[in-house]
Fold these 4 entries.
Entry 1:
Amino acid sequence: MSAPAQTPRAPLMSLDDALTALLVPVVPLAVVESVPTFEADRRVLAQDLVSALHVPPQDNSSMDGYAVRCTDVTAPGVVLPVSQRIAAGHAAEPLRPGTCARIFTGAPVPEGADAVVMQEDTQEVGGNIHGVHINAMPRPGQWVRRAGEDVTRGAVVLSRGQRLTPASLGLAASLGLAQLPVMARPRVALFSTGDELVMPGEVAPQDMPPGAIYNSNRFFLRALLQRMGCEVSDLGIVPDRREATVAALKTAADHHDLILTSGGVSVGEEDHIKPAVQQLGSLNLWQIAMKPGKPFAYGTVGRDAGAGALAAQPCHFIGLPGNPVSSFVTFLLLVRPFLLRLQGALPDVAAALPRPVQLPAHFDLPRADRRREFLRVRRNAAGGLDIFPNQSSGVLTSAVWGDGLVDNPAGSTIAHGDLVAYFSLAELLA
Ligand code: AMP
Ligand code: MG
């Protein structure tokens, strides 16, 4: 009897190729919403914002002091009568020649004045004479904030595709914008697969049946999706059965932009995700040469006529590995840029991963892996990186202990002191 012919294993796709295949075809969501500026933090701008005015709108003082004409200050100590008082929010009269104006921070600089002398460089003349000694010679333009020095009328201040931050909300408000045009939130259906999964709160730790574990992926995946600005429908746990998986995918496809699952996407008989996606649509990408995270899948699931206008396009599908660290890492490295693309916030696919920082390893990694590895590490006080001792893809403690990932190329060992590429988790979670 001859041995069955061995089919040679095709090499796995590299992470870079997978990112290109995943991200290049993504078309940003077409829906634009108008939201109050107060509620727009982290949303993605759908249009360029053009300023309809100068910011600041007029020249104003950046000090409490006296507005003067420089030519009137002939020598230090000269006395100028005070001809008006200008507080912030009040209009100014043109400055009478040979006089100065009492002025406060943010108040408009009167026509004719070309500088402000700060209060500390002046001295009031005694008695009731409204005059001051100007003790320092002003330079033209001194302590004056010029109209339009922050923003000029007609300038593009924030661009389409930019993710809004607290500072950009303030800037938009300074243009008078109470509402902002933003991209729709991606609607994501999330479900976990696995008959071993139990929800915290439903079974107490001492009552856990044999083989059961708590569903941890559901918690961090939901939080990660929310941080990315998604509207999440959490569809709970789907049992490890083909029909149940097909039914869940089918229902979710009609009303969502993306279906995100965890688990069930490996090669075992209990892994039903892959055949279910193939039955309902197509599986375009499966397995990546990375560690953790090999069993990553991308595909599409067809929609029913009931999905209305959406029916013409299939729903995106991403299957994450079940192991918690694999799920977490593949979310950060693949799902995050995918969601940015869907919101029009990642025009350059080459920028899918953050720019790494080169830092010295304060550890050894004597055994090279065939796959590109993402090691959970932490910056130490000496400016180097410590590694979490257990790099197993099931050990979620490593992702809490670590503040970053070392991107270690396939086939590479690391010796203490080597410079390695470090991605900060804070950047990947921003
Ligand atoms: P799978 O990809 O379904 O074969 O799962 C791989 C490993 O991850 C198994 O040990 C599962 O028990 C575990 N796992 C799968 N889903 C979850 C989950 N939602 N939370 C915690 N562990 C999980
Ligand atoms: Mg499973």
Entry 2:
Amino acid sequence: MRILGIESSCDECAAAVVEDGRRVVSNVVATQIPFHAKYDGVVPEIASRKHVEWIDGVVARALAEAGMAADELDGVAVTSTPGLAGALLVGVQFAKAFAWSLGKPFIGVNHMLAHLWAPQLEADTPYPFLGLLVSGGHTLIVRVEGFDSVEVLGTTIDDAVGEAFDKVAKHYGLGYPGGLVIDRLARKGDPRAARFPFPKLDKGEHRYDVSYSGLKTAAIRQIDLFWNPEYPRTDENLAAAFEKAAIDLLLDRLMKAVEDTGIRRVVAGGGVAANSYLRSVMAAHRELDARFPPLSYCGDNGAMVAGLGYMMLARGDRSDLSLNASPRVPIYRRGKGGR
Ligand code: KG4
Ligand code: ZN
């Protein structure tokens, strides 16, 4: 079965064709980064407008690169939650109209579950595994037992980790997207240049939770307090110290979850999973079976949507024309913890 997957929840306008949930036949991602860069962040109204302009062409290209006509598709999948409301709507409305005009089944999928399907694309990642989903909008440590069986162990109590990268980069005028720029600068800096506080909320039900608003404030407003005067105040040093603090916090919670659950296989996904420091530390942890989907499947893309859509369609799930976009995540079952 060949499924078309459409993704428009944020600033990537993407479409892909995937066969039987795993074989990526085509994967087209049109990024809007240049249009948001001058605002140092995603502007929802611009995102929606660009999706409207591009979606037709992006889908046409995904089909052309797959060497297929639309009526050869077996179904259409689209991200319907969570994300920016207006951006999601473009994909959802397009998918509905497209599937209806072809008389094909279609299905709305959850973006986070789609990220957790990414490690199955062109690969086989046996369940169970722990997922570390880290991006501009989400920060989740989850236990994954199957393509739609996910228990949230930990999350952020305030900002998402990518958001903290983006805000710090914006404040210091480092460039956009913040995470990518900080990653690049950090490679030339020394993380000992600042010593940021480590949030203490790892007790009880917050055992796997993280918090980024304190670190963000420390890095932006209280930098004099935490700077080590032995180091010059360069962008590179700031980036290295901030990056280390932000990523070490994630790793601390992740390692607790690994210890408590006994699950050693860990899959990272979302934009922040591209971070080179995160990757090198995870790969160096010998007790972990750390897996990183290729970068093209880590960020937002249509292939993960098509893959998850296949799994749902294959077991008989269908959406109908009343499908709506819902910007908020339907409440994830929050586990009692890994124990
Ligand atoms: O998954 P994604 O493309 O979009 C969503 O937010 O859903 O993730 C984008 C986020 C941004 O916050 C960006 O700054 C961050 O991922 N990011 C990074 C890196 N590349 C992108 N953060 C840290 N290191 C990177 N190399
Ligand atoms: Zn995402």
Entry 3:
Amino acid sequence: MTAERKQSLALFLATLDDLLGSGYASKREYSFSKDPSSSDPPAQPVQEQKEQEPVALHAALKKPVPPDSLHRIINEVYICTACPLHKTRISGVPGEGVEHPVVLVVGEGPGAQEDKTGRPFVGPAGQLLDKMLSSIDLSREKQCFITNIVKCRPPLNRDPQLEEMEACMPFFSRQLALLKPKLILSLGRIATQWLLQTNETITKLHGQWKDYKGIPFLPTYHPSALLHNEMWKRPAWEDLKILRAKLQEYTDQKPELSKQKEPEV
Ligand code: URA
């Protein structure tokens, strides 16, 4: 399915969702048709309507609010216009992976390939990320969920601006609340500094466990930085081993460290 088709399908689903979720049928009880040919009942005098209101209103208020869901977030990301990034995107990139991940992986924002496909980390940096995860027996299909701070591509891959990250943050917070990951792995300076609200460099922060809303949080280098600079390959590998060691606390099996293989960068 093309990104454009996906977006219009998402728009249709979100509209349908809103109509059903906000009690369209019960709202119609209160609306007065201006069309003389309409078969709707004529408008009631204000006084009469007031007398009927409490019962009907009570019923409408009791309608359960639909619970949040990852599916709902996906649809909302596709049609989001909360910041200027929507004007230049092909597709929003909500994120993907398992519903209850061991590790939530967070990048900064989609690149060109991600924008075209609507999927996170599918370009060269994404391929390296998959290798890095697989070197410690993780994958987006089995134990991870991968997303970004901003869900739409910043033009020419520039850094996302503060207002853009702020506007997109509710999506991340809702994803976090639903996914309930055991650990968070943040990739690169932008995502790390934003989530930890610090100006410390990634060189200083990487490989040290932090806390994000009660969840152990490990910063490491962004895979695209590793593609550009060999120098960070070794420390990034050391970070993965730190993540691997922590993962042991969440699994019964003892890891077979000899099986770990340094990813090729
Ligand atoms: N870089 C990111 O930060 N996120 C992606 O999804 C792809 C590249």
Entry 4:
Amino acid sequence: MYLTDEEKRILDGERGEGGRKAMELLVALGKTFDAEKLIPVTRTHVALSGQEGDTYWCELLVNGGATCKVPPSTNPSWDVENLTKLYEVTPEERELGVRTIDVYRRIGAKLTFNCAPGLGSNAPLFGEHVAFSESSATPYVNAVLGARSNRESSVSALAAAVIGKTPLYGFHLPQNRHGEFFVSVDAELNEPYDWGLLGYYVGRFAGSRIPVLSFRNLPRKPRPEEFLYFGAEAATSGAVAMYHFAGITPEAPTIEAAFGNKRIPEAELTVRSDDLAEQEATLSVANASGAINLVMLGCPQYSYDQLLETERLMEGRSVHSETAFWILTSVDTAELAARSGMRGRLEALGVRLAVDTCIDEPCWKSFEGGLGVTDSPKCAYYRERRGQPFVIRRLSECVNAAIRGKV
Ligand code: F3S
């Protein structure tokens, strides 16, 4: 792998032990994937997650004198100050939450705590080379915005942020961005939830391959949240970091173009509404019904329009007294909701907004053991690993479940 003199000097410690470690990781990654060289990145996003390993890596770099050359936006961890007033965590969990926020501040990250950066807080332009971690963010910036990112881990994205470079391989090379299998879709797709089910279904077959989807009878182009849900779920059931919607996404003006002007393969998969209904049934825990203790929305974090839609569906009704209703969102969306009065109106009904926070954090553990409802298969996947079974329903049904306190 070719290294410039400056890169060699960083590897020799010119920018301290932290810089050396970050460079070492990028070079190891590049050698593993036969990268010819490193290339500059103009943006980075780190899925900091608040988990011990990620925090340790950031501490290792910052204690070695590293700071970020390309300051990354960051995923949510959790709102330690406010959520500990409501819910129990152990002193160790609290301490890790505080340590995580502190160390990312010290390394010079932008503390956006937002897992949908492509929708606003850090949205690259077409053709930009970037290093994004967060499995729902990477397919969005690649497929929808036409930027170029590999499916980075929080560790490699932070190394790229410190050095300002990433190895040239994978999705940075145009020849690796073409479709690898063909999916024909003839299903009703009306809201983000439907697109999430489609993503989950396609991801199961895709693995890490690039799907090209061709749609019949699509009444309109997908909205940003719908793209986001598709990618988030395709990266949950599979490892999809790039996809094409023929005639819709920027690198797929035609089906031929999506496949790099090579022969279009036969459709490997045909998806109809029945398939998505079956997918929905298999995602929820079997035969789950009855009282619920939590409705959790916002994985990925909800946009302003999704909050508005939730308020519309509430129709002024209050959340059941035995059910908590939390929506995770970014701090800027919550601020706009507060300014417009929407946040106050939602709170008066019992719907609360959690900012800076992910569903996969210890602050939610007091709900474990009870039944939850969500519109996100990704949320259910992570929460069930922590001991809370979930039923997956579209937004209108989640709202009704919150009001009735049962599903
Ligand atoms: Fe966001 Fe956490 Fe879900 S980072 S996408 S809320 S798992």
